[in-house]
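Researcher: I'm preparing a figure for a lab meeting and need a structural model of a single chain. I don't have an experimental structure, so a prediction will have to do for now. The sequence is pasted below. Please return the structure as tokens so I can convert it later.
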Amino acid sequence: MTKMKVTVLTGPQGSGKSTVMRQEAIAQPGLYLFASPTHELIDEQAEAFKREAPKLDLWPLHSKRGGKGKVAERLAVARDKLIADGARHAVILTTHETMMGSDLSAFAGWHARIDEAPAAVQAGSFNISEMRTALKERFDLHSKPGHDWASLRLKGNKPSWKKLQKSLGAKELVEFYKQAANPARVFVRTPDWDATDDIDWFSIWSPLELAGFGSVQIAGSGYTSSVGYLGAKALFEDLLEFDERKVPVVRSGQPSISIHYYTDSHRGSTTFWGTSVGRLQIKHVCDHLSTTLPKASFWSGNTVVQNLMEHRLKGDLIKASAAGLNKHRKRRHCAIIFSGKATKADKGMMDVFSLDKDHIERGREDELIRQFVMRGAIRNPAFGGAYDIYVYEKVQADRLKGHFEDLLFANVELVPVTEAGLMKVRRKSDGPTEQEKAAIKADRNKKAADRQRAKRAADARASGREVGKPGNPKLRKANIP
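Model: Understood. Here is the structure written out token by token.
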């Protein structure tokens, strides 16, 4: 069986991968579908296309642009019109979400260009005891003998997500239904709906869903470390072939990068920040950033962090996943207080893909932080000034420093923010520090030694021997001349 070939444009953030895809699409006539993570990035690409190829037939489509109605429906209309008109060179731009949620079989022969790694994998678990009948009526299960996981196929038409939200309530269950509407997109850990009450599930979008396209390219510096890529390799290695093509960057300027961090004694998480103790730590971070970040800065974090910081910091709050944007490349200060560590919901997916917590954290947390901080002035290869970054913890700072050194940034400094007051704060779940472990071990050894001395003293007294004097007292008497 011939494998489907997917070209992956790799290289540092800011190396021009998006530009390469755009310029090649301009130079090589054909019908192209471009997919980007946000409508802002679509608008940036659309403006660049207009400047570089003003006569090109261009269709930017997202929720805020391109007409009325659902974006997926407008996507089909644009495709049909271009085909009916006999177009030979045209570009449709839309979002990752629209691409992954649409039936693209009618795009056979087109060229797919995906900007940045899509959020291709989701996972969760829920109890189906109260909805078993509804699941049976709506989905068929397809499993293979000896396999723990079965794929789903929707019976009938896609449901209304707004109605589902009202009837189901739970956000993760609505997302399950939404993903399961796509054939072979969702997998559940059960051979049939009657086998268990508690269901683990995961959904994965893979490039195989673009198999009818004439060519497929994905541009993303972190795509080959993303959970979506690792999952696709694990499940479909016999069907997919990834061909990496590096886009280098040549720097003419060397900035001085300072990575500030707030703690080296615990790890951040949304669960922790949702507690009273965790909110106190974010307050300390917020108090410091409110006096440190200038107005010409940008910042973000998890939703729980944004809720605590919004309207208290200067600068612009932007989406944490602001991949690919160029609009902030004159700014010299940014802060990203973010956690993307593995959760219980990821367990089933991790088992299937043979991933550990470190894979998830690096693919989810590290990559987002890297993408975010590269939105600023250091995205410009000619920039040689000072650039300040604020992250929550030292582990993140260390990994980010290593990433910058791999990109051949020569001047990178780690700066602990001791004045914020959470440098040595410990979480109960973190357990003792190495120093505390050593002290506990020393205390344990001392108590064991004390017990041995007490036992030897008791034995000496019982045998009529002077405490602290070795030997058998009877033998000592026998040797007296």
